[in-house]
Amino acid sequence: MTGPQAPDEPDVRATFGAIDQPDREVRRAASERQLTLTKPRGSLGRLEDLAVWIAACQGQCPPKPFTRPRVVIFAGDHGIANTGVSAYPPEVTAQMIHNFLAGGAAINILADVAGASVRVVDMSVRGETPASVSRFKVREASGRIDQEDAMSMEETLTAIAAGRAIADEEIDSGADVLIAGDMGIGNTTPATVLIAAVTSTEPVAVVGRGTGIDDNTWMRKATAVRDALRRAKPVVRNPVELLATASGPDLAAMAGFLAQCALRRTPVILDGVVVTAAALIAENLAAGASEWWVAGHRSTEPAHTVALQYLRLDPIVDLGMRLGEGSGATIALPVLSAAVATLANMATFSEAGVSDQ
Ligand SMILES: O=C(O)c1ccc[n+]([C@@H]2O[C@H](COP(=O)([O-])O)[C@@H](O)[C@H]2O)c1
Ligand SMILES: Cc1cc2nc[nH]c2cc1C
């Protein structure tokens, strides 16, 4: 017989030091500069707040234009997709990876417009992905979360560490604003479970139409969410165990990525329901990380609105989108760039000889 065991030390792969806030002094200086620019006070509305936030993130006023915006798409298959919870078959995940690489997906077109580049990461796609994909495959598809864990604790920690390493690689290569995107048939089911679990919301209030499911499919999805939520309830306060129980390597990697971006003082534009579910967990892994994130858009998924409210994030655009891939965040990137440009480049009242009252 062994005596009582000391609790495990938290694994370093999921331990984040204190997260700094964006620079308060610079935030104040940027707010003051806004008042000197040739416009009625507050007339640029939300753009003024966004520009002040970016200045504080960069630690400099005036802020610099973004030089390397990056979209990182975390791809993974989900065991629950085999139970008929999506409008599309599971093989679409791997097929869409080829489409991303060929430049034919919505995110490729939107990223071009916004001046961003795209990286695709395979966390748990079934089968072998092409060599130009970043391969961090932890396993082939998550477990069927209504009946079994998504993955082991070891796999979860490996996926979180992969997300952190990817953030480090991107930031070390000069990325100055990051977007996480997702691709995975069935992934709105685990995302909804995570959001329902963390925010204590009933499944019926958060289960959405995903890729466009009909009423019968919605009933199956709601049942899957209910059953997975029941399995997740006992671990809801432990973010790593919650990921292992009810997410997948893709979501765990996104959580590590989002928290690491905050630790590395790099702003992130959040996308839709899947990325924001990972963000809820990332905030629990690294308290204060959400200060480094802005919500790019509001997806039509009801769980997304619940998660945004919980994180107190106000989406930049609301265009009825429900695509994923980082598309909603990428639409918001030019708005953020415009905000930065006004704060950096507008003339002041005294420079332009305009009366300020
Ligand atoms: O980002 C969103 O809010 C969003 C909403 C609905 C669907 N999606 C995308 O559609 C896929 C998941 O939908 P589903 O119905 O298969 O769970 C996955 O590839 C997501 O990127 C994404
Ligand atoms: C075609 C297709 C593209 C997607 N992109 C993100 N999720 C998707 C789901 C489908 C079905």
UniProtKB/TrEMBL annotation:
<feature type="active site" description="Proton acceptor">
    <location>
        <position position="325"/>
    </location>
</feature>
<protein>
    <recommendedName>
        <fullName>Nicotinate-nucleotide--dimethylbenzimidazole phosphoribosyltransferase</fullName>
        <ecNumber>2.4.2.21</ecNumber>
    </recommendedName>
</protein>
<dbReference type="InterPro" id="IPR003200">
    <property type="entry name" value="Nict_dMeBzImd_PRibTrfase"/>
</dbReference>
<keyword id="KW-0169">Cobalamin biosynthesis</keyword>
<comment type="similarity">
    <text>Belongs to the CobT family.</text>
</comment>
<dbReference type="InterPro" id="IPR017846">
    <property type="entry name" value="Nict_dMeBzImd_PRibTrfase_bact"/>
</dbReference>
<keyword id="KW-0808">Transferase</keyword>
<comment type="pathway">
    <text>Nucleoside biosynthesis; alpha-ribazole biosynthesis; alpha-ribazole from 5,6-dimethylbenzimidazole: step 1/2.</text>
</comment>
<dbReference type="InterPro" id="IPR036087">
    <property type="entry name" value="Nict_dMeBzImd_PRibTrfase_sf"/>
</dbReference>
<dbReference type="InterPro" id="IPR023195">
    <property type="entry name" value="Nict_dMeBzImd_PRibTrfase_N"/>
</dbReference>
<dbReference type="Pfam" id="PF02277">
    <property type="entry name" value="DBI_PRT"/>
</dbReference>
<comment type="function">
    <text>Catalyzes the synthesis of alpha-ribazole-5'-phosphate from nicotinate mononucleotide (NAMN) and 5,6-dimethylbenzimidazole (DMB).</text>
</comment>
<keyword id="KW-0328">Glycosyltransferase</keyword>
<dbReference type="GO" id="GO:0009236">
    <property type="term" value="P:cobalamin biosynthetic process"/>
</dbReference>
<dbReference type="GO" id="GO:0008939">
    <property type="term" value="F:nicotinate-nucleotide-dimethylbenzimidazole phosphoribosyltransferase activity"/>
</dbReference>
